[in-house]
Amino acid sequence: MLERTVHLSSCSLGARSTDLDHALGRMAADMTLGAGAWERFSRQVDRARARFARLIGADAERVAVVPNASVGAYQVASTLGRRRGRHRIVSSTAEFPSISHVWLAQGRDGTEVVHAPCAGKPVDATADGYGDDGAGDWAGDCVADYAALIDERTRLVSVPLVTYAEGRVMPVAEIAAIAHAAGAPVFVDAYQAVGVRPVRVDELGCDFLVAGTMKYLLGLPGLAFLYVRAPGSLGLDPVLTGWFGRVDPFAFDVGLLDFPAAATRFETGTPAVPAAYAANAGFDLVEPLDLAEVRDHVLALTDLAAGGLRERGEQVVLPPRRTRGAHLCLFDPEPESLARFLAEHGVSVSPRGRYVRISCHFYNDAGDVAALCAAVSAYRSKHGSCGGVRVHS
């Protein structure tokens, strides 16, 4: 794929690899085994679970395979016992909407959802004292925003590790410490982080973490993972369940609803088998990497891209390095139009809201950045300037 495409949209969908193609070919070959195919299918799922667990520094028994991050969030929300007076979920305006929607859906049992205003703060590296010079403290302000909402009423605190819109690294460990002091568990959405930077659940201090395979883990949609620090200690058993959530999925007892002590208690029906094969192909590519080196490589590329675009008069939202994930944002009045033009010129990006997101991974290089800048200049030559208004979040 990289021979014909400048792939700068891994924040939406990872680049297609020959490893993935070969994995899907193996799945098709395994299907010819008839009933024997299911043993190989299950092996792929279990292997993907174990490899994700290693990647985040957890035991495989604490990881459930789920269809997507939203189902993972629901499994947490619906199984947290409602202790006396604890009716509040604390989230933020930087949350991916689908996760927040799961929290809001709990309102029918009286749950209150409140949002820390972290997305309302300036993030441009040169804007309003929040730059690398240390004059401001965006992360510290986010911690304070969460702290103002966390109290004895809090049932759950939800924090994205890297925000989906502007690629900001949230101060998860600091927020988790405040939540735990108030007796509340912490849920982390790490979808925009796992595979492109080191992620360790012990360092984050989280009780739950969800991520999936289709972005920086270089797999397909249809497979995600839910880490649960203490799977058997939540207040309620899952309501959304299925045969993979049983102690023995192959008991085939229609009258028995039992739940294992491991995180597999949160699993439901048959997982997306093609996505499991693809997940292991992605792990084959990601596991040999030093993810700290990948993070530094990506930071250097986003610096280079921001500099090149700003030299051309573009307006770029780029958090300082200490609070930056793997993408930067290019403002445009019509981001979908810009993204389509770039795609026609061999550059893949991801429009969201008023921005075009430009994300980098280990396989990107300075040549990709040069191609991006040239394609954006060509678009401006055809469609005109996007204007001279300075953009904050």
UniProtKB/TrEMBL annotation:
This is Aminotransferase class V-fold PLP-dependent enzyme. GO terms for molecular function: transaminase activity. It comes from the Bacteria. InterPro entries: Aminotrans_V_dom, PyrdxlP-dep_Trfase, PyrdxlP-dep_Trfase_major, PyrdxlP-dep_Trfase_small. The keyword rRNA-binding does not apply. It holds the Pfam family Aminotran_5. Gene3D superfamilies: Aspartate Aminotransferase, domain 1, Type I PLP-dependent aspartate aminotransferase-like (Major domain). Residues 39-364 form the Aminotransferase class V domain. Keywords: Aminotransferase, Transferase.
